[in-house]
Design goal:
Layout (H helix, E strand, L loop, with lengths): L16 H8 L1 H25 L2
Protein name: N-acetylmuramoyl-L-alanine amidase
Organism: Bacteroides ovatus
Amino acid sequence: HTTPASVFVELGNIQNSFDQQRIILSDTRQALANWLCEGFVTDYNRYKKKTR
């Protein structure tokens, strides 16, 4: 068994009024989730290719 990797990602500053307004919008949250997921999958696939 291996210990799963963990990541802390800060997507905005809740004290900042601009960030507050961005985070409220569901389309913005979904776009951020999509970008993060795409990045994680891309990184994982690159890692898999290196370890073969």
